[in-house]
Amino acid sequence: MTAESAAPPAPVPSGSQAASARGVDPSAGEVEIHLGDNLDVARGLPSGAFTLIYLDPPFNTGRTRERAVEIAVAVEPEPTQSRSVRTGFHGRDYERLRGDLRTYDDRFDDYWGYLEPRLAEAWRLLAPDGTLYVHLDYREAHYAKVLMDALFGRERFLNELIWAYDYGAKSKRRWPTKHDTILVYVKDPTGYWFDSESVDREPYMAPGLVTAEKAARGKLPTDVWWHTIVPTTGREKTGYPTQKPEGILRRIVQASSRPGDRVLDLFAGSGTTGAVASALGRHAVLVDANPAAIAVMAARMPHAEVLTTLPNGGDPAHPFSTS
Prior knowledge:
By secondary structure, the chain is α/β, with parallel strands linked by helices. It has a single domain, classed as Vaccinia Virus protein VP39 (Rossmann fold, 3-Layer(aba) Sandwich). The chain has 9 helices and 9 strands.
């Protein structure tokens, strides 16, 4: 067949056209899922590209993690100083602080060694008006808060959110631990995006003390969020062990991004961040190194594009069909 007689190539459908063809709401945001090490993937993404970044790293169980060796940024040592000093994004050194924590609990030092380069990349990827949410459990939240203050700048700390739930076994030898902590940092304390009007409201605890109009509308949530875990039966249950409820992520996405903005999750797991963001008209990039997680996400978001990021800067591949 000659070039003149060859049939013209079929047009490539846009993201919204492809979503519509698969029975997905055409207003849904695009989703890109990466199978690969999240540090490798993050280093290949453009700076300042994401208005919202949500990180839900594995909770520290004390197990040693295999991690890439990072080179610390060092300052010129004083005459009596024999070691290098790591610096934060604004020239603050925190090696002494980290050394104190290492002396107290070396398990955290290993955890922070894994987490720190990923936080640094997340900060680079955050837009000037962007917000970073870091989801932790009670074992690490207090350590991580002090070190992230040093790394990003204490003035960039916005909130400590408490997600409280009441499910599962309860200890009778101490107060039962039934909450997670989400630390919130903003790139620019004077210019970040926060839309309280778009956030879902919650009932007043004493509706009789407010007007009927206020009671009907509900109140803006505070920094303590009472929300059930993912129900064992129900629409959103995927079976993935660390799945977070859509209600928690919906509140985060509504408050800290706009339709059309880009959202990043480097520890995507079951893909709740992407599912919620896409349904709200945001575009999501999700990363996980677990093929089982990728399969769950691909099934949950059939309109997503699934890529594999090869080590050492290899070209992305398409290992899964999302049709």
